[in-house]
Each structure stands twice: as C-alpha cells, then as structure tokens.
Design goal:
- This protein is an alpha/beta fold.
- Helices cover 30% and strands 31% of the residues.
- It has eight helices and eleven strands.
- The strands form two sheets. It has a six-stranded mixed β-sheet with strand order 2-3-1-4-11-5. A five-stranded mixed β-sheet has the order 8-7-9-6-10.
C-alpha cells in the first residue's frame, strides 16, 4: 500500500501515531530518500500541499494531510478519519488596533497561502476580494502595506502577536486527516479497512 506523507509539520505526529499503533515507519534520520518501502508499505514523502494530489490521482492509496490543506485543495478523495494531531486554526487576522473595517471597505486585500479558502470566505460575506498569494512569512504583508489582512493557520497565536496582528475571526479548526483514493478504497478494501481500524484505535486511545 502506498502512503503519501507530508515532509512538513505533520511528519512527527504521523511517525508517533504509526509507531504507537505498531505499524512500520521510516526512521526520521533516513536522509533525503523520497520513497521508502518497508513492512508492506511504500511511503512517499512529499510537500504538505501535494499530499491530496498524490492521493486523488492514485499515485498513493492513502495519505495524511491537514484539514486546512484539504480545504484549499478541494481534492476528490475520501476523508474517513480525523487523526487528532496537528491541531491549529485557520483564521483571518489584521494589525492590532487597526481602524480598517471590513463592512465599509470597497475591496479587501488579503495575503495568504490559502487563496481559494480566503476568497471564498470573504466573498461569502459579500466583500470584494483581492488575493495576494504568498508562499511564506504572510505576517509581514499588512505591516508593509501589501494587504489589509491575512488568512493563515495559527497554533498558539504567538507569531501573530509578535508581528502586531490580532485574530478577527476563525474560519475553521484543522487537524490531521487520513485520506484515501476513491478507487483504492474499493480495490484494496481489506487493506484500507485494516489500516483504518488500526489508526482509529490508536487515535482514540
């Protein structure tokens, strides 16, 4: 069975979950190898945002991705299990004490790594939106006049505070999810079911 794993923030939690469940998992010190086979699994190490794509198109049977990534990707995959780790929030934030008012703005300029989610959320409030897509350091955008606000993930909110930002509202809570390719869900039903049962029992422990 092929499993796509994020090389980013969810990797440590994925390793802990698999090992506690008694499943094989490549050692963290395994180097830069992107495909590792062990214990009947073929692990694919890819970027966070690419996990849903590998699973949707069948390059992987299963994968572990954050709900924030899944919301942005909009991939056609099964999402049968909330694994419970990697908790964070997807929020709208603006400069602390800012006089900027969303309700009276003709256009809101938002900086984000989540352009689809940000546009849909703000447009759903009847706002005209201009999205500035950034790959990182999104918190800098308002201070430099690049955007009125940002949409990003936060865990404790410390990074926002240190950069003079405050949360305006929460769009969604996010945790790691097990996702499954639709064809694999049926073609490899027994293997997928065993993996689901094993991980579900450990996630609930």
């Amino acid at each position: 069975m092929r499993i796509a794993l994020s090389k980013g923030k969810l990797l440590a939690g994925s390793e802990t979950l698999f090992k506690q469940a008694g499943l094989p998992f490549p050692a963290a010190e395994g180097g830069r190898k992107l495909v590792v086979e062990m214990g009947g699994f073929r692990f694919l190490f890819v970027k966070d945002a690419d996990v849903p794509t590998y699973v949707e198109y069948g390059a992987a049977d299963c994968g572990i991705a954050g709900r924030d990534v899944l919301m942005e990707a909009g991939s056609d995959v099964y999402e049968p299990l909330d694994l419970g780790f990697g908790r964070c929030r997807l929020v709208v934030a603006r400069p602390t004490g800012s006089s900027f008012a969303f309700a009276s703005a003709s256009t809101v300029r938002v900086a984000t790594k989540y352009p689809k989610v940000a546009a849909a959320h703000l447009q759903g409030k009847g706002l005209s939106v201009e999205v500035v897509r950034l790959a990182g350091s999104v918190e800098l955008a308002p201070a430099l006049g690049l955007a009125d606000c940002i949409v990003d993930v936060v865990e404790t909110g410390r990074t926002l505070r240190e950069n003079g930002l405050e949360v305006v509202e929460e769009i969604a809570a996010s945790t790691a999810r097990l996702i499954v390719n639709r064809a694999s869900y049926h073609a490899r039903r027994d293997e997928v079911a065993r993996l689901l049962r094993t991980l579900q029992a450990q996630a609930a422990a």
